[in-house]
Amino acid sequence: MEKTKKAAWLIDYPIKGSGGHKTFFYYINHLIEIGYEVDVYVYDFLGVNASPATDPSSLAAVVADYLIPSRANFYYGWKPKGVYDFMFATWFPNAPVVADYPYAKHKIFFEQEYEPFFTMMGDQTIKAQNAYHLGLTGITMGGWLAKELTAKHNMEAYPLYLGADLDSYYDKGRFRDNAVCFIYQSNKPRRCPQLTIETIDVLHAVDPSIRIYTFGGEDVPPVAGATHQGLLRIKDLNKLYNQCKVGVAYSTTNPSRIPFEMMAAGLPVVELYADNNLYDIPTKAALLAKPDPFAAATAILKLLKDEKLWAEKEPRRLGIYAN
Predict the structure, then answer these.
(1) Which of 26, 121, 163, 214 has its CA at 20 to 30 Å from residue 18's CA atom?
(2) What pTM did the predictor assign?
(3) Collapsed DSSP state (helix, strand, coil) of residue 28
(4) The domain containing residue 310 runs over which residues?
(5) Is there a domain that residue 171 lies in?
């Protein structure tokens, strides 16, 4: 009888609604589906939770509540035990743990963002850069990130292309309001919360009749003209996408998964004109705008007011995510 293959993932403590954490568990669950036994080592490295769950059943419950259910085995702390066919680092603080672990055949850095961009130049930037020089094999979300790791750090890296869960995000074919939705996450500088506020301010000043929705976190953006939806469940997020005509998600360290989910739900997208987005965003269904509130608002207005342009960018007509 063939021996069951084993994989281990080291992740930081789950954040409610986090797309990055959810992506971990999409792949963890797929490994389980194809016959792997998967151990997930969770650790609140930054100490942001006053009372983090630490026993296996509580960790599984947190993952199911915050993200998606998983049949993985859960452990608290980045202290792996056992022999593994694959071991995955997912953040630069746990990359050295994986690199130094003697009982893993293949050691992977599963990278979703260019992490040296997360902080101002200093100690943490250097630590993030050094994590790419530990001998781990990179698996990245998107082609731009694989290119960056190879070109800047001579790291062997392979891209997984960004997409969406089509069982969760789909075009209902309903009438769409004269509305636009923005992801707003005040705690994530890489999602440009200030640029989001300024874009909404311009958009509302030009045409107050446009319905503007924000979502993605508990914090309400301090700007007039927007209705904040908070942190939405997947089914409610798909409902919001189907209600709107344009989706806006700003990405600076690697494309977010959000624009791809918007497209799957039939939304043309406005994103930033930046190297990372030129690599990975399907521009047939998007307008890329300069990182300026007036340029971004202009792109949104074009899609809202020019029916021919909107039809040309409609993901369903283009066959994007039709399969």
Answers:
(1) 121
(2) 0.90
(3) helix
(4) 179-318
(5) no
